[in-house]
Design goal:
The chain has 67 residues and is mainly alpha-helical. The protein has helices at residues 8-19, 23-40, 47-66. Helix 1 packs across helix 2 (23-40), helix 1 runs parallel beside helix 3 (47-66) and helix 2 (23-40) crosses helix 3 (47-66). This is DUF3562 domain-containing protein.
Length: 67
């Protein structure tokens, strides 16, 4: 049985707040990474979760480099 899709707006808002990044930037990153993961995936159940994690990690790593 597959996992329900997360609410994209909630995921984007959450990441934007956590990383102090504009929602538009987060949304574009999330959509790009999600599309890439879906293109490569054989099992799709957790793809949205992996995409959200990668966006968070990239934004956190980027903010650490700026300091």
């Amino acid at each position: 049985m597959s996992q329900p899709e997360p609410n994209v707006d909630e995921v984007v808002r959450s990441i934007a707040e956590e990383t102090n990044t504009p929602a538009e930037t987060v949304s574009q990153m999330y959509q790009d990474i999600l599309a890439d993961y879906r293109h490569q995936a054989r099992v799709f159940d957790y793809v949205p979760l992996f995409a959200a994690r990668k966006v968070r990690d990239q934004l956190r790593d980027g903010s650490r480099r700026k300091h």
